[in-house]
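U., I forgot to send this yesterday:
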Amino acid sequence: MTADRNSHAVRLQLITVAWMLVELGVSAYSAFTAHSAAMLAFGSDSMVETLSAAAVLSQWLPGINLSERRAARISGVLFVPRGTRQDLDRYRHHCRRTARDAGPRPHEAS
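Result:
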């Protein structure tokens, strides 16, 4: 990357991290004041995104020796628990919907 493109990438990544920190703060505050599990889940997603963006940003910061490949691996590892949680949520929703749609079963005659 040229110096100009590098500085542009750093600025964009800094804006991204700043926005995600605001998003994280607002969702965490909302979750605790409203006692909302949904807002807490949104906040945890924001935290993962913030950490991932920070890993990507760190490859351009002086004094941190982090390759693009390593930053990508860190980001990928951070997103695995998020995807797993979303898959489990979808599975639970599917199970509930299937059980609800099946309805009560009539007793079999003996």
